[in-house]
């Protein structure tokens, strides 16, 4: 039987809550309909935000929200989205289905949403088609409390107090939809633009996020880091607090035919998990490059787009990136969460793409209906790791599973952390489609094991919730364990996540 040894007194790093971040872009029904329905909607809302969706997301514990894109960010001119709604400019959302964007969700609405969610703010600026002055003024509009043209404009638009911008992205995918730049060119632009992301609040500096690589484009990271670092006077410094990385899990690995969200066989299931495990290598190699130019514990990786990307649901607008979400997505989330947790010293933030109705969403809506996806439950079960200390663990055995020899994955993936009140949080996932796993959790450095919460999410690899059957997959109480002193014996069902919370002693 596999044994998971947990050293309850040996910590290996702090798990920033922001590793469980979300991303909402002006794309398809991600914001409009999915989150924002406007105050006059018949769907119950508070200041235009859907009450059902906000309540579900609060329960899931969203630590930070990235907005307004994505590719949309580099076409977004923030002044179009302020002031009386009837006067706001209507523009074409050129990247995503060429739909009319009426700008009714803008800066004020974003901060209202974050207030309702109780989360930090991550605003992505426009380098691709915006000016330095525009970015400079946006920062002033959002964060300056005194007397100034932009602060006065904000007050005139009904918000006396400034807001807190926790993170600011200087461009998005500047190697692609954000301007097709070379790393040298972007690096120089980054140095210039970030100068004008000023800290109006001395007690709340804005963390500046530089646009990083597409997957394994290590040359991008190398060149940008080289361009953006300087020696002064003894140490290397860098004009940034984090550098991003985008990596999507695509079952086939091909952008033209990615694979269906719901119809796949065991081979494609394991191939998807194998592809998602590539995240480990990406983190390690990009971090090695960052460490040549900065301390990676100070300039962290910001994985602000990750998750599965499939072919859109048949019959839906291809530009809306709407896809269903199965237990396979919960396994992908669990694998990524564990990778992020185990690399928590060098990862500053991670944001799944995206939050509602787009790509690997936690919440799906249809009219006034809302359902929660397996990805939602994965986030919900892992929420206790937010702001906890990663504990040292050792797993005695972990067989590989998979149908193709070269594309096998480890059967068990896990994280154990300790909250500030001493509670030990164990999440373990068994990614096998058909074989359960007996496992013993051996707690070292604590007296006895008293379980205060035990939950499980389990189902067939392709099980999912629909608007007709919304509870096919859901978190349930877990009973299949026994305790002897400091040892907990349990059985992990196939394709499952188990959460155990153990009282600190
Ligand atoms: O998340 C969808 C898109 O994927 C984003 O707009 C872009 O940054 C990435 O290519």
Span from first to last CA? Answer: 26 Å
Tell me roughly what share of residues is in helical segments: 10-25%
- List low-pLDDT spans: none
How would you describe the oligomerization state of the chains in this entry? single chain
In total, the number of strands is 28
Large-scale geometry: globular
Q: Structural class of the secondary structure composition?
A: alpha/beta
- Ligand species: alpha-L-arabinofuranose
* Tally of separate helices: 9
- Percent in strands: 25-35%
**Largest sheet composition:** 10 strands, mixed
Spatial strand sequence of the major β-sheet: 25-24-28-22-21-18-1-23-27-26
State Rg: 23 Å
Instruction: Write down the overall mean pLDDT.
Output: 97
Could you explain how this protein is built, in words?
With 505 residues, this protein is an alpha/beta fold. It is built from 9 helices and 28 strands. The protein has helices at 51-60, 107-117, 132-143, 149-156, 183-195, 218-228, 266-293, 327-342, 374-382; strands spanning 2-14, 21-23, 45-46, 49-50, 64-67, 91-93, 99-101, 120-125, 167-170, 207-214, 229-231, 236-238, 242-249, 300-308, 347-353, 363-366, 369-372, 389-395, 400-401, 409-410, 412-418, 424-430, 437-444, 451-458, 476-477, 481-484, 487-492, 496-502. It has a 10-stranded mixed beta sheet with strand order 25-24-28-22-21-18-1-23-27-26, covered by helices on one side. An 8-stranded parallel β-barrel has the order 2-5-8-9-10-13-14-15, surrounded by 5 helices. α6 (218-228) runs parallel beside α7 (266-293). It is globular, with a radius of gyration of 23 Å. Alpha-L-arabinofuranose binds at residues 25, 69-71, 172-173, 305, 353-354, 359.
